[in-house]
Every structure is written in structure tokens, then in C-alpha cells.
Amino acid sequence: MKRYAKRTLLLFAATLALFVLTLVGGVHAANRVVPDTYSTIQGAVNAAGQGDVIQVRTGTYNESIYISTDNLTLVSIDGPGKAVLRGSSITAFSGLKPEAIPDGGATIFIGPSLGVTIDGFSITPGSVLNASGIVHTGGNPANAVTIKNNSLDGFTSYGFHGVWGIEGVGYMTDNTFSFTGNTVKNSATGVFLERLSQCTIRIDGNTFEGSGTGIDIGVFLSSTVSINDNIVRDGEYGIYVANDTTSSVTAEGNSIVGNTQYGMYCDTKTIDSRGNWWGHSSGPRDQKTLPGTPNYNNPNGTGNRVSSYVDYNPWLTSDPATPAPPSGGGGGCTAGIPTPAMLFLLIPMGFLLLKK
């Protein structure tokens, strides 16, 4: 009996200790509201602990931000674009080699090896003309990096810049990077990524307009990349990918129009780029000499130009960024789809319906 009571007491003590640890861990994460509790975003960031949420209300904030705590969430709490962040100083960071950080400062700097979520801000250079909107300073974050629902306008270098690894060595490994639902206008490069390994990379549902290069992906290894449902228009290079032989890249449902050099350029390994709109129903301009990779071309296409290693057939024959007409006409892909094979599938289905 005494042994049973002792065991019960030990079990109760262990359960109580676990409950206290859980409670303490839950209390650690906090919501910090600007300007209700903190007059500046940087003040809230400086006070934050790991996992905290910085909620920023409607208003214009003339400040540049440096994030130095892991796994923070910064959110425009009243909705996308309601919190406007205008850089007020040339925020710089001196801890890494210059190749990891673009010149000219940034409106938001994310410290090395930090996961972060930045959600819903309108971000501009401000009076000091910071060259980049958001810069991640590298390292190997343990938590995801998520940039979503923001607008970035007028940066002379990058809307978003992320080069991971330390001192030019290493990669962000086995992690997730998401750049979704953002609008980037009038920047030299919309989003630039390099040195990711075994990562999941999502660049989906964004608008890039008036950029030298809309989407630029440099060195990455053994990763899965989706570049889907974006609008990439009126730049020089729409999408530029330096793919490696071990990664999988899919680009689908994009509207790629008005780019003067290439709609899509890839310098190694074929990208699955079927089902995109290239600016004209005749498809992209592809004048490569055959045999080539892929082993077809489209010399009569008048849409945006594509390089080798871009597998674009079949393509969309209407713009997914434009609502379909009320009649439901138009749309679809070119006649490269194997229609006879579809008929062979439909005939057995018809017999099944007759049997019923």
C-alpha cells in the first residue's frame, strides 16, 4: 500500500512539473501591439522574445527595422497595406562578408540564422532611399522564413534579398522559404534567393512589375521549388533560374508578359514550365536551333522569349490574370495536348454509364 502511494505521489509530481513547464513555455510567446503599447515597431521588436507576435496598427511608421530575435511574426493587424513602413535610416549590418549583404542599406534587416514572418506591410525606401526592402543576412535558420501579403515599391537593388550560409560557405538547410501574395514594383530585382539546400521554396501568387529581374534564384541544391500563379510583367528578365541537377522546379499558371529580354531564362536542367501565359496565344518566342533541350522550338511565337531548358509546351492561350468572359469562351492550352488519348478514356466511361 505504501509503495502504491509513493508511486502515485511521484506520478502526480511529474505531471505537475510537466504542466508548469508547458505553462511557462506558453506564457513566453506574447502579442506586442504598436502603437498601443510600444510607440515604434523597433521598440516592440527589441522587447520581444522568441515566438512573439508584433501587431502593427494602421499608420505610417518612419523607421528602419533590425530583427535580432528568432521566429518573430510582424503583421499589419488591420489588413494588408494598412501599416506603412518608410525607411528612415540606412540600416546596415557588419557581421558578414559583403557578398552576403547588398550595398545601400535596407528598410528591414533580418539577423543571421533567424526564422521570421513578415505579413501585410507596405514597405518603401523612405527619405533615405534604402536600396533594398527586406534583407536576410544569412546563416542557417532553424525556423521558416515567410514573407507574405506585402507591397514593396521603388528599391534600387532588391525587394527581397536572401543569401544564406556563413562567410560564403554553407546553406540554409532542410527548411521552408515562402514568398507569397506580395507585390513588388519598380525594383532592380524583385526577389533574389541563393544557397538553399534540401529546402521547400514557394514563390506563389505574387505580382512583379517593372523590375530588371522579377524572380532570380541563384545557387541551390536538392530543393523543391514552386513558382506558380505569379504575374511577372514589364521588366527585362521575368524569371531567371540557375537550377542544379538535383532540384525540382515547377512554374505553372504564371502570367509572363512585356519582359524585354526573356520571360524565363534557365542555364541548366529543364524546368517544367507548362501551362503559363507568355503574352500571346501563339506562345513564347523560342528560336533555338534543333536538336535542343527540350527538343522543340516555337519560332513563330510572339510572346515573351524563353531560353533552352524551359519546357513550355503546352502553354496557356489566354491570360490567367484576366477574368474569363461571361460566355466562358477562350482559355485553355494549345493543341499540343493529346486529344485522341482523351477520347479513348471517354469511350469506356460511356459504356459504364449505359450499364447503369
Automatic annotation (TrEMBL):
UniProt KW keywords: Membrane, Signal, Transmembrane, Transmembrane helix
Signal peptide residues on this chain, from the entry's feature table: 1-29
Region annotation Disordered: where it falls in the sequence: 277-303
Keyword set includes Transmembrane: yes
Biased composition (Low complexity): 289-303
Annotated TM spans: 335-354
Periplasmic copper-binding protein NosD beta helix domain span: 140-268
Pfam families, A to Z: NosD (PF05048)
Tree of life domain: Bacteria
The protein's name in its UniProt record: Synergist-CTERM protein sorting domain-containing protein
Source organism of the structure: Aminivibrio pyruvatiphilus
Upper classification of the organism: Bacteria, Thermotogati, Synergistota, Synergistia, Synergistales
